[in-house]
Design a protein that fits this description.
- The protein is an alpha/beta fold.
- A six-stranded mixed beta sheet has the order 3-2-4-1-5-6, with helices on both faces.
- Helix 1 runs parallel beside helix 2 and helix 3 crosses helix 4.
- The protein is globular, with a radius of gyration of 15 Å.
- The chain starts with a strand and ends in an 8-residue tail after the last strand.
Length: 166
């Protein structure tokens, strides 16, 4: 069995219009929600074996807050350029190349790719995974390379408003 944790970045700031999309930081709500969600999830799961993030600032900032909760340092974060646009086939390609010795992976990505990919994997009909939403998917396989050929089941789906963090 493999477990995939897909995390949409926390709420980002649009305060500075001079910043490019890639450089937008988290806003106050994002900085508040991400550590709370990380602590909540930490109580439910074992520490993921690997953390992979889009290179955008908001996803990296979200990833670092989660990694802090799990006792990991930023140096252990893997940045994946193909996650920036967040297409399902890009996520699947990266996942299929993960080291089979890793039993779990936490990925920090963008929408609409995260919602579409969770639905594609599990057959669920989630309308929209909101900012800082987390979906856990259990894969019935021993090898990440078989991700598109194995059964997948949604274990949980949490988001800040669903936990009354707002």
């Amino acid at each position: 069995m493999k477990t995939l944790y897909l995390v949409r970045h926390a709420k980002s700031s649009w305060k500075n219009p001079a910043l490019g999309d890639r450089d937008r930081p988290l806003n106050a709500r994002g900085k508040r929600d991400a550590p709370v969600m990380a602590e909540y999830v930490k109580q439910k799961i074992e520490k993921p074996d690997i953390f992979v993030s889009s290179p955008s600032r908001r996803t990296q900032d979200t990833a670092v807050l989660f990694m802090n909760a799990f006792g990991r340092s930023m140096e252990q974060l893997i940045l994946e350029e193909s996650f920036y646009h967040g297409y399902e086939n890009d996520m699947e390609s990266v996942i299929s190349h993960l080291d089979p010795t890793h039993h779990s992976a936490m990925l920090f990505v963008h929408n609409p790719g995260i919602t579409d990919y969770v639905n594609q994997l599990t057959g669920e009909q989630i309308f929209n995974i909101p900012t800082c939403g987390i979906a856990a998917v259990q894969l019935e396989t021993k090898n990440w390379a078989e991700i598109n050929q194995c059964q997948a089941k949604l274990l949980f789906y949490y988001y800040p408003k669903g936990l009354d963090l707002q």
